[in-house]
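Sanity check. The docking grid for flavin-adenine dinucleotide depends on where the pocket ends up, so I'm generating a full predicted complex first rather than guessing from homology. Inputs follow.
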Amino acid sequence: MTPFPTEVDVAVVGVGAAGIGALRRLADAGGVNLLGLEARDRVGGRVNTISPTGFALDRGAEWLHSADRNPLSPLAQRLGFTVHRRPPEWTSRLSRSGETPEAEADWLATRERQSHLRRTAALAPEDRSLASTLVPGGRWNQLLDATSTWANGAELDRVSVKDYVSYDEHSTNVNWRLAEGYGRFFEKLAADLPVVLATPVSRIDHRGGAIRLDTARGVVTAQRVIVTVPTTIIAAEAIRFDPPLPGKVGAAAGLPLGVDDKLFITLDAEWAAGFAQDGFLVGSTTRRETMSYQLRPLGRPAIYCFFGGRFAAGLERDGAAAMFAFAADELANILGSDIRRHISPLAATAWQQDPWSRGSYSYAVPGHAGDRAILAAPVDDRLFFAGEATSPYDFSTAHGAYGSGLAAAEAALASLRRS
Ligand SMILES: Cc1cc2nc3c(=O)[nH]c(=O)nc-3n(C[C@H](O)[C@H](O)[C@H](O)COP(=O)(O)OP(=O)(O)OC[C@H]3O[C@@H](n4cnc5c(N)ncnc54)[C@H](O)[C@@H]3O)c2cc1C
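Predicted complex below; grid placement will be based on this.
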Protein backbone atom coordinates (compact mmCIF):
# COMPACT_ATOMS: atom_id res chain seq x y z
CA MET A 1 0.00 0.00 0.00
CA THR A 2 1.37 3.40 -1.01
CA PRO A 3 1.90 5.62 2.08
CA PHE A 4 0.20 9.02 1.99
CA PRO A 5 2.86 11.66 1.31
CA THR A 6 2.35 15.36 1.97
CA GLU A 7 4.45 16.71 -0.90
CA VAL A 8 4.95 15.42 -4.46
CA ASP A 9 6.09 16.73 -7.84
CA VAL A 10 2.98 15.58 -9.72
CA ALA A 11 -0.40 14.49 -8.34
CA VAL A 12 -2.87 12.71 -10.62
CA VAL A 13 -6.50 13.02 -9.54
CA GLY A 14 -8.51 9.94 -10.57
CA VAL A 15 -6.93 6.60 -11.52
CA GLY A 16 -9.09 5.36 -14.38
CA ALA A 17 -7.71 4.80 -17.89
CA ALA A 18 -6.53 8.43 -18.22
CA GLY A 19 -4.95 8.50 -14.75
CA ILE A 20 -3.20 5.20 -15.41
CA GLY A 21 -1.88 6.56 -18.73
CA ALA A 22 -0.57 9.69 -17.01
CA LEU A 23 1.01 7.83 -14.07
CA ARG A 24 2.53 5.18 -16.37
CA ARG A 25 4.21 7.84 -18.52
CA LEU A 26 5.48 9.78 -15.48
CA ALA A 27 6.76 6.62 -13.77
CA ASP A 28 8.52 5.48 -16.95
CA ALA A 29 10.19 8.91 -17.30
CA GLY A 30 11.80 8.41 -13.87
CA GLY A 31 13.00 11.03 -11.41
CA VAL A 32 9.52 12.39 -10.69
CA ASN A 33 7.95 12.04 -7.28
CA LEU A 34 4.33 11.21 -8.09
CA LEU A 35 1.05 10.12 -6.59
CA GLY A 36 -2.32 8.95 -7.89
CA LEU A 37 -5.34 9.90 -5.77
CA GLU A 38 -8.34 7.65 -6.38
CA ALA A 39 -11.78 7.98 -4.76
CA ARG A 40 -12.81 4.35 -5.23
CA ASP A 41 -11.26 1.35 -3.50
CA ARG A 42 -9.97 0.11 -6.86
CA VAL A 43 -8.23 1.51 -9.94
CA GLY A 44 -9.69 1.48 -13.47
CA GLY A 45 -12.74 3.73 -13.08
CA ARG A 46 -15.12 3.00 -15.94
CA VAL A 47 -12.98 0.03 -17.02
CA ASN A 48 -13.70 -2.76 -14.56
CA THR A 49 -13.66 -6.56 -14.87
CA ILE A 50 -15.47 -8.90 -12.49
CA SER A 51 -15.47 -12.70 -12.60
CA PRO A 52 -18.44 -13.95 -10.53
CA THR A 53 -18.56 -17.34 -12.29
CA GLY A 54 -15.00 -17.76 -13.49
CA PHE A 55 -15.00 -15.94 -16.83
CA ALA A 56 -14.31 -12.22 -17.17
CA LEU A 57 -17.20 -9.75 -17.39
CA ASP A 58 -16.38 -6.16 -18.31
CA ARG A 59 -18.84 -3.91 -16.48
CA GLY A 60 -17.60 -0.88 -18.45
CA ALA A 61 -15.28 -0.77 -21.46
CA GLU A 62 -15.09 -4.11 -23.25
CA TRP A 63 -14.12 -3.36 -26.87
CA LEU A 64 -10.80 -2.11 -28.17
CA HIS A 65 -12.37 0.33 -30.62
CA SER A 66 -10.39 1.29 -33.75
CA ALA A 67 -8.41 -1.73 -32.66
CA ASP A 68 -6.10 -1.77 -35.69
CA ARG A 69 -4.74 1.69 -34.76
CA ASN A 70 -5.41 1.46 -31.01
CA PRO A 71 -2.04 1.48 -29.20
CA LEU A 72 -3.53 -0.65 -26.42
CA SER A 73 -4.02 -3.64 -28.78
CA PRO A 74 -0.28 -4.44 -29.18
CA LEU A 75 0.37 -3.46 -25.56
CA ALA A 76 -2.26 -5.92 -24.29
CA GLN A 77 -0.77 -8.63 -26.44
CA ARG A 78 2.72 -7.93 -25.11
CA LEU A 79 1.37 -8.21 -21.55
CA GLY A 80 0.01 -11.68 -22.34
CA PHE A 81 -3.68 -10.90 -22.94
CA THR A 82 -5.66 -12.86 -25.54
CA VAL A 83 -6.97 -10.54 -28.26
CA HIS A 84 -10.16 -11.77 -29.98
CA ARG A 85 -10.49 -10.31 -33.46
CA ARG A 86 -13.93 -11.58 -34.55
CA PRO A 87 -15.88 -8.52 -35.83
CA PRO A 88 -19.09 -7.82 -33.89
CA GLU A 89 -22.33 -7.92 -35.89
CA TRP A 90 -23.98 -5.29 -33.69
CA THR A 91 -26.92 -3.92 -35.70
CA SER A 92 -25.90 -5.35 -39.07
CA ARG A 93 -27.93 -8.62 -38.87
CA LEU A 94 -31.56 -7.65 -38.32
CA SER A 95 -32.74 -10.92 -39.85
CA ARG A 96 -31.79 -12.54 -36.51
CA SER A 97 -34.33 -10.20 -34.88
CA GLY A 98 -37.22 -11.25 -37.09
CA GLU A 99 -36.76 -8.89 -40.08
CA THR A 100 -36.72 -10.16 -43.69
CA PRO A 101 -33.46 -10.03 -45.69
CA GLU A 102 -35.03 -7.22 -47.78
CA ALA A 103 -35.82 -5.19 -44.65
CA GLU A 104 -32.29 -5.79 -43.39
CA ALA A 105 -30.87 -4.48 -46.68
CA ASP A 106 -33.15 -1.43 -46.45
CA TRP A 107 -31.93 -0.76 -42.87
CA LEU A 108 -28.27 -1.02 -43.93
CA ALA A 109 -28.89 1.41 -46.81
CA THR A 110 -30.68 3.82 -44.43
CA ARG A 111 -27.76 3.65 -41.98
CA GLU A 112 -25.36 4.45 -44.80
CA ARG A 113 -27.50 7.40 -45.96
CA GLN A 114 -27.68 8.72 -42.39
CA SER A 115 -23.91 8.60 -42.12
CA HIS A 116 -23.64 10.67 -45.31
CA LEU A 117 -26.30 13.17 -44.13
CA ARG A 118 -24.53 13.57 -40.78
CA ARG A 119 -21.18 14.26 -42.44
CA THR A 120 -22.79 16.85 -44.69
CA ALA A 121 -24.61 18.50 -41.75
CA ALA A 122 -21.34 18.67 -39.79
CA LEU A 123 -19.85 20.91 -42.49
CA ALA A 124 -22.49 23.64 -41.95
CA PRO A 125 -21.38 26.62 -39.84
CA GLU A 126 -24.14 26.05 -37.26
CA ASP A 127 -24.01 22.89 -35.15
CA ARG A 128 -27.22 20.86 -34.94
CA SER A 129 -28.45 17.69 -33.28
CA LEU A 130 -28.16 14.25 -34.88
CA ALA A 131 -31.98 14.16 -34.92
CA SER A 132 -31.99 17.03 -37.45
CA THR A 133 -30.80 14.64 -40.18
CA LEU A 134 -33.65 12.16 -39.71
CA VAL A 135 -36.17 11.78 -42.52
CA PRO A 136 -39.53 12.67 -40.92
CA GLY A 137 -41.60 9.52 -40.43
CA GLY A 138 -38.71 7.32 -41.61
CA ARG A 139 -39.27 3.59 -41.14
CA TRP A 140 -36.07 3.09 -39.13
CA ASN A 141 -36.09 6.26 -37.01
CA GLN A 142 -36.73 4.41 -33.73
CA LEU A 143 -33.89 2.00 -34.36
CA LEU A 144 -31.57 4.87 -35.32
CA ASP A 145 -32.48 6.49 -32.01
CA ALA A 146 -31.92 3.25 -30.08
CA THR A 147 -28.53 2.92 -31.79
CA SER A 148 -27.66 6.44 -30.61
CA THR A 149 -28.47 5.46 -27.03
CA TRP A 150 -25.96 2.60 -27.37
CA ALA A 151 -23.25 4.61 -29.15
CA ASN A 152 -23.64 7.96 -27.35
CA GLY A 153 -25.60 7.08 -24.23
CA ALA A 154 -28.18 9.67 -25.35
CA GLU A 155 -30.99 10.06 -27.86
CA LEU A 156 -30.35 11.69 -31.25
CA ASP A 157 -31.93 15.02 -30.29
CA ARG A 158 -29.40 15.52 -27.48
CA VAL A 159 -26.18 14.92 -29.45
CA SER A 160 -24.07 17.39 -31.47
CA VAL A 161 -23.66 16.35 -35.10
CA LYS A 162 -20.25 18.04 -35.37
CA ASP A 163 -18.89 16.18 -32.35
CA TYR A 164 -20.36 12.84 -33.42
CA VAL A 165 -18.87 13.14 -36.89
CA SER A 166 -15.40 13.96 -35.61
CA TYR A 167 -15.43 10.58 -33.78
CA ASP A 168 -17.02 8.75 -36.69
CA GLU A 169 -14.56 10.03 -39.29
CA HIS A 170 -11.60 8.81 -37.22
CA SER A 171 -13.08 5.43 -36.34
CA THR A 172 -11.71 2.47 -38.30
CA ASN A 173 -14.72 0.32 -37.29
CA VAL A 174 -12.42 -2.48 -36.19
CA ASN A 175 -13.39 -3.79 -32.74
CA TRP A 176 -11.56 -6.46 -30.74
CA ARG A 177 -11.95 -7.89 -27.22
CA LEU A 178 -9.66 -9.21 -24.50
CA ALA A 179 -10.67 -12.63 -23.22
CA GLU A 180 -9.25 -11.92 -19.76
CA GLY A 181 -11.04 -8.53 -19.59
CA TYR A 182 -10.20 -4.92 -20.44
CA GLY A 183 -10.33 -4.08 -16.73
CA ARG A 184 -7.75 -6.74 -15.84
CA PHE A 185 -5.45 -5.25 -18.48
CA PHE A 186 -5.65 -1.79 -16.89
CA GLU A 187 -5.10 -3.32 -13.44
CA LYS A 188 -1.92 -4.90 -14.76
CA LEU A 189 -0.77 -1.59 -16.27
CA ALA A 190 -1.32 0.06 -12.88
CA ALA A 191 0.12 -2.70 -10.68
CA ASP A 192 3.36 -0.93 -9.69
CA LEU A 193 2.10 2.68 -9.70
CA PRO A 194 2.03 4.81 -6.53
CA VAL A 195 -1.71 5.13 -5.90
CA VAL A 196 -3.73 5.78 -2.77
CA LEU A 197 -7.25 4.36 -2.94
CA ALA A 198 -10.42 5.51 -1.18
CA THR A 199 -9.05 9.06 -1.21
CA PRO A 200 -11.44 11.48 -2.92
CA VAL A 201 -10.14 14.98 -3.62
CA SER A 202 -12.58 17.73 -2.68
CA ARG A 203 -10.67 20.95 -3.41
CA ILE A 204 -7.73 22.07 -5.55
CA ASP A 205 -6.21 25.35 -4.42
CA HIS A 206 -3.94 26.68 -7.17
CA ARG A 207 -3.37 30.17 -5.80
CA GLY A 208 0.10 29.71 -4.32
CA GLY A 209 3.44 28.41 -5.61
CA ALA A 210 2.57 24.80 -4.83
CA ILE A 211 -0.89 23.44 -5.57
CA ARG A 212 -2.78 22.26 -2.50
CA LEU A 213 -5.17 19.32 -2.71
CA ASP A 214 -7.69 18.66 0.05
CA THR A 215 -8.37 14.92 0.24
CA ALA A 216 -10.20 12.53 2.54
CA ARG A 217 -6.80 11.60 4.03
CA GLY A 218 -5.56 15.15 4.51
CA VAL A 219 -3.68 17.73 2.47
CA VAL A 220 -1.06 17.02 -0.16
CA THR A 221 0.84 19.67 -2.13
CA ALA A 222 2.11 19.23 -5.68
CA GLN A 223 4.09 21.25 -8.22
CA ARG A 224 1.84 19.99 -11.01
CA VAL A 225 -1.61 18.39 -10.97
CA ILE A 226 -3.33 16.30 -13.66
CA VAL A 227 -7.12 16.13 -13.22
CA THR A 228 -8.74 13.10 -14.90
CA VAL A 229 -12.15 12.87 -13.21
CA PRO A 230 -15.34 12.55 -15.33
CA THR A 231 -17.07 15.69 -16.65
CA THR A 232 -20.01 15.05 -14.31
CA ILE A 233 -17.73 15.57 -11.29
CA ILE A 234 -16.32 18.85 -12.67
CA ALA A 235 -19.73 20.17 -13.82
CA ALA A 236 -21.27 19.46 -10.38
CA GLU A 237 -18.25 21.14 -8.72
CA ALA A 238 -17.75 18.03 -6.60
CA ILE A 239 -14.12 19.15 -6.74
CA ARG A 240 -13.87 22.89 -6.05
CA PHE A 241 -11.11 24.88 -7.70
CA ASP A 242 -9.73 27.90 -5.92
CA PRO A 243 -9.67 30.32 -7.71
CA PRO A 244 -12.74 28.96 -9.50
CA LEU A 245 -12.48 27.79 -13.12
CA PRO A 246 -15.87 28.67 -14.62
CA GLY A 247 -14.60 27.90 -18.14
CA LYS A 248 -13.86 24.31 -17.13
CA VAL A 249 -17.17 23.91 -15.32
CA GLY A 250 -19.03 25.27 -18.37
CA ALA A 251 -17.14 23.01 -20.79
CA ALA A 252 -17.79 19.96 -18.61
CA ALA A 253 -21.51 20.82 -18.57
CA GLY A 254 -21.48 20.91 -22.39
CA LEU A 255 -20.03 17.38 -22.37
CA PRO A 256 -22.36 15.40 -20.08
CA LEU A 257 -22.03 11.65 -19.64
CA GLY A 258 -24.68 9.64 -21.42
CA VAL A 259 -26.02 6.51 -19.74
CA ASP A 260 -25.24 2.97 -20.88
CA ASP A 261 -25.58 -0.13 -18.77
CA LYS A 262 -25.08 -3.85 -18.98
CA LEU A 263 -27.01 -6.80 -17.66
CA PHE A 264 -25.25 -10.16 -17.68
CA ILE A 265 -27.40 -13.26 -17.91
CA THR A 266 -26.35 -16.91 -17.57
CA LEU A 267 -27.64 -19.44 -20.05
CA ASP A 268 -27.87 -23.06 -18.99
CA ALA A 269 -25.77 -25.63 -20.83
CA GLU A 270 -28.72 -27.21 -22.67
CA TRP A 271 -29.67 -23.91 -24.33
CA ALA A 272 -26.14 -22.62 -24.73
CA ALA A 273 -25.36 -25.58 -26.99
CA GLY A 274 -28.10 -24.46 -29.39
CA PHE A 275 -26.70 -20.98 -30.03
CA ALA A 276 -23.92 -19.95 -32.35
CA GLN A 277 -21.09 -18.06 -30.66
CA ASP A 278 -21.16 -14.24 -30.78
CA GLY A 279 -24.58 -13.75 -32.35
CA PHE A 280 -26.17 -10.29 -31.93
CA LEU A 281 -29.85 -9.50 -31.50
CA VAL A 282 -31.79 -6.28 -31.32
CA GLY A 283 -34.77 -6.59 -28.95
CA SER A 284 -37.06 -4.50 -31.14
CA THR A 285 -36.54 -2.75 -34.48
CA THR A 286 -39.52 -0.44 -33.91
CA ARG A 287 -38.99 0.86 -30.35
CA ARG A 288 -36.36 3.23 -29.06
CA GLU A 289 -36.59 1.61 -25.62
CA THR A 290 -34.94 -1.68 -26.37
CA MET A 291 -31.79 -3.66 -25.60
CA SER A 292 -29.10 -5.19 -27.77
CA TYR A 293 -27.93 -8.71 -26.94
CA GLN A 294 -24.67 -10.60 -27.42
CA LEU A 295 -25.41 -14.32 -27.44
CA ARG A 296 -22.70 -16.63 -26.13
CA PRO A 297 -19.93 -14.01 -26.27
CA LEU A 298 -16.56 -15.71 -26.78
CA GLY A 299 -18.45 -19.01 -26.58
CA ARG A 300 -19.50 -18.48 -22.96
CA PRO A 301 -22.82 -19.76 -21.54
CA ALA A 302 -24.14 -16.21 -21.20
CA ILE A 303 -26.04 -13.34 -22.81
CA TYR A 304 -24.76 -9.79 -22.41
CA CYS A 305 -27.51 -7.15 -22.63
CA PHE A 306 -26.66 -3.53 -23.42
CA PHE A 307 -29.00 -0.52 -23.17
CA GLY A 308 -28.75 3.25 -23.01
CA GLY A 309 -30.21 6.74 -22.79
CA ARG A 310 -33.22 7.74 -20.68
CA PHE A 311 -34.45 4.16 -20.89
CA ALA A 312 -31.29 2.94 -19.09
CA ALA A 313 -31.51 5.74 -16.53
CA GLY A 314 -35.09 4.63 -15.76
CA LEU A 315 -34.12 0.97 -15.46
CA GLU A 316 -31.28 1.91 -13.10
CA ARG A 317 -33.86 3.49 -10.83
CA ASP A 318 -36.14 0.44 -11.12
CA GLY A 319 -33.28 -1.94 -10.29
CA ALA A 320 -31.64 -5.12 -11.56
CA ALA A 321 -34.81 -7.25 -11.28
CA ALA A 322 -36.63 -4.85 -13.64
CA MET A 323 -33.72 -4.98 -16.08
CA PHE A 324 -33.87 -8.78 -16.10
CA ALA A 325 -37.66 -8.86 -16.51
CA PHE A 326 -37.42 -6.53 -19.52
CA ALA A 327 -34.64 -8.57 -21.14
CA ALA A 328 -36.46 -11.86 -20.51
CA ASP A 329 -39.59 -10.50 -22.24
CA GLU A 330 -37.65 -9.31 -25.29
CA LEU A 331 -35.67 -12.55 -25.55
CA ALA A 332 -38.82 -14.65 -25.19
CA ASN A 333 -40.46 -12.63 -27.94
CA ILE A 334 -37.64 -13.37 -30.38
CA LEU A 335 -36.37 -16.79 -29.28
CA GLY A 336 -39.55 -18.34 -27.86
CA SER A 337 -40.92 -18.31 -24.33
CA ASP A 338 -39.13 -21.55 -23.38
CA ILE A 339 -35.96 -19.50 -22.95
CA ARG A 340 -37.34 -18.11 -19.69
CA ARG A 341 -36.64 -21.46 -18.01
CA HIS A 342 -32.98 -21.41 -19.08
CA ILE A 343 -31.78 -17.94 -18.11
CA SER A 344 -30.93 -16.30 -14.81
CA PRO A 345 -29.49 -12.90 -13.86
CA LEU A 346 -25.79 -12.75 -13.06
CA ALA A 347 -24.80 -9.09 -12.64
CA ALA A 348 -25.97 -5.61 -13.64
CA THR A 349 -24.46 -2.13 -13.73
CA ALA A 350 -25.86 1.27 -12.76
CA TRP A 351 -23.21 3.72 -13.95
CA GLN A 352 -25.35 6.83 -13.54
CA GLN A 353 -25.96 6.01 -9.89
CA ASP A 354 -22.27 5.40 -9.27
CA PRO A 355 -21.15 8.53 -7.36
CA TRP A 356 -17.66 8.50 -8.92
CA SER A 357 -18.80 8.37 -12.54
CA ARG A 358 -22.43 9.60 -12.56
CA GLY A 359 -22.81 8.32 -16.11
CA SER A 360 -21.10 6.22 -18.76
CA TYR A 361 -19.34 8.26 -21.45
CA SER A 362 -19.37 11.80 -22.77
CA TYR A 363 -21.28 13.24 -25.70
CA ALA A 364 -21.43 16.91 -26.71
CA VAL A 365 -24.68 18.84 -26.48
CA PRO A 366 -25.46 20.56 -29.84
CA GLY A 367 -23.31 23.70 -30.07
CA HIS A 368 -20.69 22.31 -27.66
CA ALA A 369 -18.31 20.30 -29.87
CA GLY A 370 -15.63 22.93 -29.12
CA ASP A 371 -15.85 22.24 -25.38
CA ARG A 372 -13.45 19.29 -25.62
CA ALA A 373 -10.55 21.63 -26.45
CA ILE A 374 -11.59 24.06 -23.68
CA LEU A 375 -11.67 21.23 -21.12
CA ALA A 376 -8.29 19.87 -22.31
CA ALA A 377 -6.41 23.20 -22.11
CA PRO A 378 -3.89 23.53 -19.23
CA VAL A 379 -4.25 26.30 -16.65
CA ASP A 380 -1.10 28.38 -15.99
CA ASP A 381 1.07 25.52 -17.28
CA ARG A 382 0.60 23.82 -13.87
CA LEU A 383 -2.84 22.31 -13.85
CA PHE A 384 -3.49 19.78 -16.61
CA PHE A 385 -6.68 18.04 -17.70
CA ALA A 386 -7.12 14.57 -19.15
CA GLY A 387 -9.91 11.97 -19.39
CA GLU A 388 -11.93 10.57 -22.27
CA ALA A 389 -13.95 13.78 -22.69
CA THR A 390 -10.78 15.77 -23.48
CA SER A 391 -9.83 13.59 -26.44
CA PRO A 392 -10.51 15.43 -29.73
CA TYR A 393 -11.88 12.37 -31.56
CA ASP A 394 -11.30 9.22 -29.46
CA PHE A 395 -13.60 10.52 -26.73
CA SER A 396 -15.93 8.09 -24.97
CA THR A 397 -13.32 5.34 -25.19
CA ALA A 398 -10.74 3.77 -22.89
CA HIS A 399 -7.90 4.22 -25.37
CA GLY A 400 -8.90 7.89 -25.88
CA ALA A 401 -8.73 8.36 -22.11
CA TYR A 402 -5.38 6.57 -21.86
CA GLY A 403 -3.93 8.67 -24.72
CA SER A 404 -5.14 11.89 -23.08
CA GLY A 405 -3.35 10.82 -19.88
CA LEU A 406 -0.10 10.23 -21.77
CA ALA A 407 -0.38 13.67 -23.41
CA ALA A 408 -1.09 15.44 -20.09
CA ALA A 409 1.91 13.68 -18.51
CA GLU A 410 4.15 14.82 -21.40
CA ALA A 411 2.94 18.39 -20.91
CA ALA A 412 3.50 18.22 -17.14
CA LEU A 413 7.03 16.83 -17.63
CA ALA A 414 7.89 19.57 -20.14
CA SER A 415 6.56 22.19 -17.75
CA LEU A 416 8.61 20.76 -14.85
CA ARG A 417 11.75 20.88 -17.03
CA ARG A 418 11.10 24.55 -17.84
CA SER A 419 10.72 25.55 -14.18
C1 LIG B 1 -21.19 0.50 -19.87
C2 LIG B 1 -19.96 1.07 -20.52
C3 LIG B 1 -19.47 0.49 -21.68
C4 LIG B 1 -18.31 1.00 -22.28
N1 LIG B 1 -17.79 0.36 -23.39
C5 LIG B 1 -16.62 0.78 -23.89
C6 LIG B 1 -15.95 0.00 -24.88
O1 LIG B 1 -16.42 -1.08 -25.26
N2 LIG B 1 -14.76 0.47 -25.35
C7 LIG B 1 -14.19 1.64 -24.91
O2 LIG B 1 -13.10 1.99 -25.36
N3 LIG B 1 -14.80 2.39 -23.95
C8 LIG B 1 -15.98 1.97 -23.44
N4 LIG B 1 -16.56 2.68 -22.42
C9 LIG B 1 -16.02 3.99 -22.05
C10 LIG B 1 -14.74 3.91 -21.22
O3 LIG B 1 -14.95 3.02 -20.14
C11 LIG B 1 -14.41 5.31 -20.68
O4 LIG B 1 -14.40 6.25 -21.75
C12 LIG B 1 -13.05 5.38 -20.02
O5 LIG B 1 -12.82 4.26 -19.21
C13 LIG B 1 -12.96 6.67 -19.19
O6 LIG B 1 -11.72 6.74 -18.55
P1 LIG B 1 -11.33 8.07 -17.74
O7 LIG B 1 -10.00 7.81 -17.12
O8 LIG B 1 -11.49 9.26 -18.61
O9 LIG B 1 -12.46 8.22 -16.62
P2 LIG B 1 -12.81 7.26 -15.39
O10 LIG B 1 -12.63 5.85 -15.77
O11 LIG B 1 -14.14 7.68 -14.90
O12 LIG B 1 -11.68 7.60 -14.33
C14 LIG B 1 -11.78 8.71 -13.49
C15 LIG B 1 -11.44 8.27 -12.08
O13 LIG B 1 -11.60 9.40 -11.21
C16 LIG B 1 -12.11 8.92 -9.98
N5 LIG B 1 -12.70 10.06 -9.26
C17 LIG B 1 -13.91 10.65 -9.45
N6 LIG B 1 -14.06 11.68 -8.59
C18 LIG B 1 -12.92 11.75 -7.85
C19 LIG B 1 -12.46 12.61 -6.81
N7 LIG B 1 -13.22 13.61 -6.34
N8 LIG B 1 -11.23 12.37 -6.28
C20 LIG B 1 -10.45 11.35 -6.73
N9 LIG B 1 -10.83 10.51 -7.71
C21 LIG B 1 -12.05 10.72 -8.27
C22 LIG B 1 -13.09 7.85 -10.38
O14 LIG B 1 -13.35 6.96 -9.32
C23 LIG B 1 -12.35 7.18 -11.55
O15 LIG B 1 -11.59 6.07 -11.12
C24 LIG B 1 -17.68 2.15 -21.75
C25 LIG B 1 -18.16 2.72 -20.57
C26 LIG B 1 -19.29 2.18 -19.95
C27 LIG B 1 -19.75 2.78 -18.66
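Relevant for the grid: The first helix runs from residue 17 to 29.
Also worth noting: The chain has a mean pLDDT of 97.
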